[in-house]
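Good morning C.,

I know you're traveling, so I'll keep this short. The sequence:
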Amino acid sequence: MGVFLFAHVKFNLGKGATMEITNIKINKVTSERPSSGKRKLLAYASVTFDNCFVVHNIALYEGEEGRKIVMPRRKTSKGDFKDVAHPTVNDFREFLTNSISDAYDNVV
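The tokens, ready to paste straight into the viewer:
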């Protein structure tokens, strides 16, 4: 069962436009840290933007370099994986990572 957090965190898109995270749902994963220093899956998140668009299954990992997110993916016919949705700028990826990480910290 997930925990809902009402984030209401705004990201400045420029030219007076903003995007707001209006809801984050965290589904904590209980697993052991893999050996050899690999990253550990902490949780899956569902994030709602502006009360009208949601992205499910964003994975939150912790590794030697800190926390990272992995966007939802699908397997292509060639066996590769392709993101279903993803940030197009690094500032927004960092904002999204920090928002999900903060929500996770509030749950544990």
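Safe travels,
E.
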